[in-house]
Amino acid sequence: MAGLATAAMLSREGIASRILEAGPGVGTSWDRYYDTLTLHTGRRISGLPGFPLPRDYPVFVPRASFLAYLRAYARHFNLNISPHQAVQRATYADG
Questions:
Q1: Which pLDDT value is given to residue 69?
Q2: DSSP state letters, the chain
Q3: Each residue of 15-39: pLDDT tens digit?
Q4: What is the C-alpha end-to-end distance of the chain, expressed in Å?
Q5: 82 forms bridges with which residues in the sheet?
Q6: pTM of the model
Q7: Is 95's pLDDT higher than 80?
Q8: Nearest-CA neighbor of 72 among 36, 13, 25?
Q9: Fewer Cβ in 10 A, N or C end of the chain?
C-alpha cells in the first residue's frame, strides 16, 4: 500500500516511478488472505492519499472490497507496475 501511495504522490509532482511487485499484480498479498478479513480501521481513515475509499463501502471494509480499491487506485493514477519482479537487493547510487 505504501508503494502505491508513494508512486501516486510522486506522479502528482511529475516524478516518474516504477513499482516492482513480487506477485502477479496489485494487492497480491491481500488476495491471499482469508475471505472474512476486514479492516479494523474505519473507511474514512483507511484510504490512500488522493483517492478516498468509496462512500458506499461499509465502515469496516472487507478484504475483497479493499483489494478492488487498491486495483482501482493503481488504475486511477496510471501507476507503472512491473509484476513478477521480486527485489533481491537495492543499493544507493549518487545522482
A1: 96
A2: -HHHHHHHHHHHTT----EE-SSSSTTHHHHHS-TT-B-SS-HHHHSBTTBPPPTTS-SS-BHHHHHHHHHHHHHHTT--EESS-----------
A3: 999 999 999 999 888 888 888 889 9
A4: 27
A5: 20
A6: 0.89
A7: no
A8: 25
A9: C
